[in-house]
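Example record

The entry below shows one chain as it appears in the dataset: sequence first, then structure tokens.
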Amino acid sequence: MAGKPKTVTVGVLALQGAFKEHTQLLERASQQVAAKRKSQHRLDVDWRFIEVRTETDLRSCDALVVPGGESTTMSLVAARNDLLEPLRDFVKVQRRPVWGTCAGLILLAESANRTKKGGQDLIGGLDVRVRRNYFGRQVESFVTELDLPFLNEADDAADNPPSPSSFRGVFIRAPVVETVLSSKAARTGRVPDGQGDDLEVQAPSKQPKDELASELADMEVQVMATLPGRKDHGGAHATEAGQEDIIAVRQGNVFGTSFHPELSGDPRIHTWWLQGALDLIEKQHPGQ
């Protein structure tokens, strides 16, 4: 194929949690994306996947994954490493492609409740309020089959016919999206109060750097997946029967999932996200 391959660097925040599992599935997903580009006679991509622990690491990235783990610990380590503000700049000012899983979803939310005493720092970027540990304690973790229609887009990466959209979802002390916020409220920091007396924290507001970044920030939150209410599961805040919990959302450059695709061994969500991230990177940096 003519032309020198472009280099795209995807970082995985490696302060705590399941960052190695993400890297392994990203490597597999990149092969699927390469197959699609080859079939379309598009320029090859030289993928680099790195672990991000410092601002220098982050500056070299075109896209970022924030893994599952313990969100309070991750925010504390990020603050100790002077990484919180660079992360906010990456996500909310530059509006680079970012995906957060479980703890990553919490950190990327503009608002979170049920936080520990003293609260925690958030990165922000998704105009949602999340509820931490929604399904209960560690012993109440579970695995269930999820219906994810957007995965049919990932099948296109290998020119395969659409396959069943079922995906094995791993939920470990998982959050859910409790409320979708207006972008204006999140941008100004005036987020409506959550439910009850739980301690709630909010991410600091940031202004996007340019017109494209502003367009991404102003996009509506898309609900990408829900889970039927698990009233029988026993979690302290389970929904009523017939209701559904929001477990995956996308807004502009930011994608978030309550569950852990990195623990499934299935690269389809990684393939779908990687292709979308590449499309956005090419839009943000045309001609490179």
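Notes for this example: The radius of gyration is 18 Å. Residues 19-39 form the longest helix (21 residues).
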